[in-house]
Design brief:
- The protein is mainly α.
- The protein is 59% helix and 5% strand.
- It contains 22 helices and five strands.
- Strands 2-1-3-5-4 form a five-stranded mixed beta sheet, with helices on one face.
- Helix 21 links the parallel strand 1 and strand 2.
- Helix 12 packs across helix 17 and helix 16 crosses helix 17.
- The longest helix has 27 residues.
- The protein is globular.
Length: 505
């Protein structure tokens, strides 16, 4: 009876402080917050410089102009209202609110001061503040080196820079979604109500920014299922599940309300071109970058060997969005940008792997070699950034193509282009939307300029123009997005079928 009692008594001698140990240095305690502040400042300055640099270089494209239209309009979808709010506030702050820019008057927007920089500044600022906020949140679950490296990778990510330099709602969705993932993982570790509340709040805000963020509930559910199967938790937590299902039902009801109010707006997603699943996975891998994914997979395997569930959780968070949207893409329109929310889990996994190598090699006196994986991944990101900035972003050469037309168009000519892009850059109404050209081609009785994408994705195929129009110019993006090239055709009934050679601009 006495043995267990004696074994349960702590070793009193071990509990006595070591008097030979040095007294904690107040200066070292002071250096820790100073170091954190310096890291946050450095990351923020780097993010600011990269996201503001050449902010106005890419052309404004149709979806950006559509976002501005919705931000200026009072008839908003409740399921996307939060996503349009930053643009609305940003335009008002810049003196470009509804009193200056009419919601449907695209022809006068440019004359009244709406340029590429003004349109994208709200999204850009959100992309900038994302970096320090993500770092501070990650510091709650990982030490400084891994958190800093993950934030650096995010800072250098051309995918995140792309949507920080686009007048859309994806940078806001990415911020809330990534914070939701981090707070959820923290909640599963400490069980605090505060962490659970933050995770739920961020998830809801992400969905209200863009409904596709609802995939975060699939990630949460898959993680709970894995933890239950592995025996980490004896049973499913009732309260989080009930709250999660209730919130998901409420969000679905909100989305259903919007669909019923304007079914044509939503029906077009099921009438657009579908794509095979491998294309979405390949596009996601291209934007995340294959070296980063390879490093992340190696890190996930190593964490699993160490019985650390962080690897499995981040792997689920990285794969599930691409898997879910690939399934949806079999019968509805989806794009790689929907998978932007999976970016940070891959970067975080890769950074954890790099820091593990750095720590392991440091013990063996080979710390200099441990920087090779970090330099290799950072170098691959810098190469992508070089192509991104050299070619003016990933967006189409819309502005150059329409300026080419503006310099050659005659008073009686008509234009076939994207309705919003053409009106904004040509400062005139567009007679034919580029998506309707095949429906009205046989009725064209005067010179018509056609500006459309070079690919068959959302644009007429090149073969369709043979014998109908003359190709005058092509505006290419050779490195970062060949399918984003823009072509200019001319239909002239007076010389239909003419095969003249036209010099490019």
């Amino acid at each position: 009876m006495n043995a267990p009692r004696e074994s349960s008594i702590p070793n009193r001698q071990s509990s006595i402080p070591n008097r030979q140990s040095p007294i904690p240095n107040p200066q070292s305690a002071f250096r820790r917050p100073v170091r954190e502040i310096l890291i946050v400042v450095a990351l923020t300055l780097l993010a600011t410089s990269l996201r503001l640099w050449q902010l106005d270089a890419p052309s404004l494209w149709g979806d950006e102009l559509g976002t501005i239209h919705n931000a200026l309009s009072s008839d908003l979808f409740y399921s996307k209202m939060l996503g349009y709010l930053p643009t609305r506030i940003g335009l008002n702050v810049q003196g470009l609110g509804p009193d200056v820019l009419p919601a449907d008057g695209y022809e006068v927007w440019r004359e009244r001061g709406l340029d590429e920089r003004a349109a994208r500044l709200p999204s850009c600022l959100i992309g900038i503040v994302t970096i320090p906020l993500i770092y501070l949140a990650t510091r709650q679950i990982l030490p400084v080196p891994a958190s800093t490296l993950a934030s650096l990778f995010l800072c250098l990510s051309h995918w995140h820079i792309l949507w920080s330099q686009t007048a859309r709602f994806y940078s806001l969705q990415f911020l809330f979604y990534s914070l939701g993932l981090i707070f959820y993982y923290q909640a599963t570790r400490n069980g605090y109500v505060r962490s659970w509340s933050l995770a739920v709040a961020m998830a809801v805000l992400a969905v209200l920014s863009q409904p596709t963020a609802a995939v975060i509930f699939l990630v949460f559910g898959a993680d709970l299922l894995v933890r239950r199967i592995t025996g980490e938790i004896p049973r499913f937590p009732k309260v989080p599940l009930i709250v999660g299902f209730a919130l998901l039902a409420a969000l679905c009801a909100l989305l259903f309300r919007d669909v019923r109010s304007n079914p044509e707006q939503w029906l077009r997603f099921f009438q657009g071109p579908n794509q095979p699943p491998f294309r979405l996975f390949a596009s996601t891998a291209f934007y995340v970058q294959p070296p980063m994914i390879a490093a992340a997979l190696g890190s996930a395997w190593w964490l699993h060997r160490q019985r650390d569930r962080l690897g499995i959780f981040l792997l689920l968070a990285g794969v599930i969005p691409a898997l879910a949207f690939s399934i949806v893409g079999l019968f509805a329109f989806v794009e790689a940008r929907y998978c932007l929310i999976s970016l940070y889990p891959w970067l975080l996994l890769a950074s954890v792997g790099c820091m593990s190598i750095w720590k392991h090699m440091g013990r063996g006196g080979r710390q200099a070699l441990s920087f090779i994986p970090i330099l290799a991944l950072a170098s691959s990101q810098l190469v992508s950034l070089l192509g991104y900035y050299t070619e003016g972003g990933y967006r189409s050469r819309v502005r150059e193509a329409l300026e080419y037309v503006a310099a050659r168009i005659q008073p009686d000519d008509q234009v076939c282009a994207h309705r919003l892009e053409g009106a904004y850059y040509l400062k005139r109404p567009i007679e034919i939307d580029s998506h309707d050209i095949r429906k009205v081609a046989d009725t064209i009785d005067r010179r018509t300029w056609i500006v459309c994408g070079a690919s068959n994705h959302g644009s007429p195929p090149r073969r369709w123009f043979q014998g109908r129009a003359d190709l005058l110019a092509t505006f290419d993006t050779y490195l970062v997005g060949p399918s984003e090239s823009v072509q200019v055709y001319l239909i002239d009934p007076a010389i239909k079928g003419d095969s003249r050679d036209h010099a490019p601009p």
